[in-house]
Structure formats: structure tokens, C-alpha cells
Amino acid sequence: GAMSQALAKEIPREEGAGGSRRSSWGLLVTAGVGGTLVALYAVATPFVTPALRKVCLPFVPATAAQIQNVLKMLENRSGSLVDIGSGDGRIVIAAAKKGFQAVGYELNPWLVWYSRYRAWRDGVHQNTKFYISDLWKVSFSHYRNVVVFGVPQMMPQLEKKLEKELECNARIIACRFPFPCWIPDHTTGEGIDTVWAYDLKRSRGCKTKSLETTLETES
């Protein structure tokens, strides 16, 4: 109204040269903050860009509780381990510290390079490997332990892929979201920290298949 118009007319006269100076500083600060945000975006974007293009899988770091729950599911286990969509490598590194030969597959090169640096920094680079690769183009047949941080959209297809490729002695550990058809053999944690473990020898009835093979051979 009239009051706001009057104030608008009065303000420039009251500020004078000081107001112009403050406006200039304001522009400089705004430009500086804007430049910083652009720089941060350029650095951060590779870390949050979907890591697996076939299904939108953004990078979400595993929590400390999730890592501990995964390690709990790996107790009394041995052999090779793979983390599908390994992100910044924290699961692979934690497993390597427990004695596993651990491998991570991640499509985002920035995260792979950062994972390699973290493994070197933590002194486990000799027990870890990180590959820049799309999980749908990799065979996991030679791994006994598989860790998956997925999203619901990818789990049905991944379930079929792993069931086809893995040996009967494999254990698959799913974080955040379970597989749609398999019944977990072990579960631990709550909420987003829940972890499900699946033993393929039970999911696929491997004992029965082995017995049938033996009987066929004997006959």
C-alpha cells in the first residue's frame, strides 16, 4: 500500500553510499556462495548418480548397524565375498578386515576409486578388489558369499540371476530389501538396518538334487 511505497522511497535516501557498498558486498557474497555450491555439486554428483543404470540405484552409504548385521551373518563363513553395488567400499573393507577375500562391483568410477583409496588407507588393499562394472554383465558363480544393497525393482531379476549362477554352498545377504520369493534362513536388525540371509542349499533343495544325481549314477 502507500506505506510500503513510502518506505521504498525513503530507504535509498537513508542508506546513501553505505547502502550501495552493502549491495556490492551482497552481490559478491551471493556470487561466492553460488560458486561454492556449483563446485560442491560437481564433486557430489558422481557419488549420488544412479550406480546401476538398468535400475535406478542411487548411492546410499551403509549405516554402522547395517555393517555389523552383515558381519553377523558372515560369522563362521569363509571363502570369497562379493558386494554387488559396493558404493564407497565400506562393506568390502569390513569383510576384508575379517579375513575375507572381498570384491566390490560398482558402476560409478568415482566410488570405485574412492573405495580403492579407503582400502589402501585401512591397510586391506591386498585383500580387496574393486571393479567398475554393471552387475547384469558379471557372473558371480565363483563367490560363496554375496552381499546386496538393492532396491525393490531389481530384486526379482537379481534373485533369478543369482539362483542360476551360484553354487549350493553360497549365502546371499540382502540389506534394506529382501528377495521376493526366497524365504530367509536368518534375519537380524530392525527397520532400515534389517539384514536377510539366504542359503541356496535350502532355497533350491540342493540336497535332494545331489541325492537324485547319486541315485542316477548308481543305477
From TrEMBL:
Q: Which InterPro entries match?
A: FAM173A/B (IPR026170), SAM-dependent_MTases_sf (IPR029063)
According to the UniProt record, one GO cellular component term is:
mitochondrial membrane
Which GO BP terms sit in this record? methylation; positive regulation of sensory perception of pain; regulation of mitochondrial ATP synthesis coupled proton transport
| Keyword field | Membrane, Methyltransferase, Mitochondrion, S-adenosyl-L-methionine, Transferase, Transmembrane, Transmembrane helix
The entry lists its GO molecular-function terms as: protein-lysine N-methyltransferase activity
Q: Where in the cell is it found?
A: Mitochondrion membrane
Major subcellular location class = mitochondrion
- Identify its membrane topology class: Single-pass membrane protein
Membrane-spanning regions, if any? 25-44
- State the family named in the UniProt similarity comment for this chain: Belongs to the ANT/ATPSC lysine N-methyltransferase family.
Question: Any idea what this protein is called?
Answer: ATP synthase subunit C lysine N-methyltransferase
